[in-house]
Amino acid sequence: MADAKADIGVIGMGTMGANLALNIAEKGFKVAVQNRTAEKAFAVKDDNPELADNIFPAESLEDFVKSLKTPRVAIFMVPAGKPVDDEMEKIRPLLEEGDVMVDAGNADFNDTVRRSQAVEGTGLKFIGMGVSGGELGARHGPSIMVGGAKDSYPLIEPVLTKIAAKYKDEPCVAWLGPDGAGHFVKTIHNGIEYADMQMIAEIYGIMRDGLKLEPSKMAEIFRDWNTRELASYLIEITAVNLDEIDPKTDKPMVEVIVDEAGQKGTGRWAVIEAEKLGVGATTLEAAVAARGLSSRRAERADAAKLYDKVEAGQPQFFADEPGLSELESALVTAKIIAYAQGYAAMAAASDENSWNLPLGTIAEIWRAGCIIRSHFLDDIAKAYDKGHTVVNILQSPDFVGRVAKGQSALRRVVAKASLAGIPVPALSAALAYFDDYRRERGTANLIQAQRDLFGAHTFHRFDTDGAVHHKWPAV
Ligand code: 6PG
Fold it and tell me: Which H/E stretch holds residue 269?
């Protein structure tokens, strides 16, 4: 087999890289694998004898490159940031015209734009692709958001189409636009993931502190919700999380887990990029901020003592059928608003970067494989599919009725939670955004007046064209 060449190569045999390589091998492609410590690459072959014929571990980067068919495709599955630049620098001298470097990590899309520009005119190609679905997704079918060199996409499309998750036989992969488009979409995916998770956690907070339910009862409710509009991977795993018993203490697992959320930064990127585009993704922002505050546990404990005399009202939540369906409806409505914000950020980025992002296709490739996968995304895909311009999901005829119907449940849940002192930052951000979004006459006129008074920043009047300055009384 010394002459056999690999169809594609993966650099970085961490969990994601190894699982992606195994997925590729399982689909019948020959995959070269390389790792900084070569043993790890050989272990991938040794530990998977049934796929061994399709796995080509390399001793060195040189051997890895030599083992690839031309034009060569090398996928980097290394930590985002400097490791990607380092790998690029090492491999570039070994590659030839037409070869493709693919960064499949969770890159900052700004880095992807820079890397794409760096290879321009060199004959080498760069693709930045977001891969979602965690370890199991990488192994058995992720959702793949591709951006970068469109002319090179046909080289990897056959492999990606085979390894991607399928939604009713349709592969969850697509080329979405040039340079950073794929990684930008993955970043927004993660921002939405944060908002979705935070909203579920807030409802859990109401169930725990307002309804005093046991986790096993909550699991039952989430399982029930998973049969309707909310049906999704995140609701499904929430029920599993809540049902689990800690073998050490026999207590519900969620009760022995410290209430400090980790984050690797992609949710924060989503919020920063949305702000830069002038599209406040406030539910995503609330979710990122809540993770930040969650990790200040000692400080929260001190604050809890300082304010223990503050009277909050009695929780007005009820665990009966109307009470639970109110919670369900509130969560559905807030979720629509969060997705609308994520989509608004993508639409703005698309305009700003001339990416022409196919927003309907994005919903389609998120229907399976990724962390936010759900049937609900099929509704979004259909909204974009109808051919009418979707200015914002909240203006899409498919969603107006749903939001109009669900907003009162969201309003009641946010109001009751506030009165009871139960924090619901993402749910209330969703409600505030909705109310602000649907208000024809806002309050920014006062802000303009203030700006003009202290800084002569000018403002527009309803009855004249152009910016004007008013001579305000001296203060
Ligand atoms: C995915 C996920 C994944 C992400 C984890 C953890 O789409 O598979 O988004 O890429 O790394 O969800 O992210 P945090 O550590 O930031 O929560």
Answer: helix 266-276
pLDDT digits (tens, 9 = 90+) for 313-340: 888 999 999 999 999 999 999 999 999 9
Residues facing residue 125 across a β-bridge: 100
The tens digit of pLDDT for each residue in 63-101 reads 999 999 999 999 999 999 999 999 999 999 999 999 999
Catalytic (active-site) positions: 186, 193
| Ligand 1 pocket check for 438: Cβ under 6 Å | no
Peptide bond into 71 cis (omega under 30): yes
Q: What are phi and psi of 271, to 5 degrees?
A: -65, -45
Q: Is the CB of 370 inside a 6 Å radius of any atom of ligand 1?
A: yes
Please give the mean pLDDT across all residues of the chain: 96
pLDDT-based confidence at residue 388 (cuts at 50, 70, 90) = low
Residue 280 near residue 355 (C-beta atoms within 8 A): no
What DSSP element (H or E) covers 233? helix 233-243
- 19 Cβ below 6 A of ligand 1: no
Map residue 101 onto helix, strand or coil: strand
Q: Could you give the domains of the chain? A: 8-179 (3.40.50.720), 187-437 (1.10.1040.10), 442-475 (1.20.5.320)
Work out the average pLDDT over 138-149. 97
- Give the residue, out of 264, 367, 374, with the most ligand 1 atoms within 8 A of its beta carbon, to mutate for a pocket test: 264
**3-class secondary-structure state, position 164:** coil
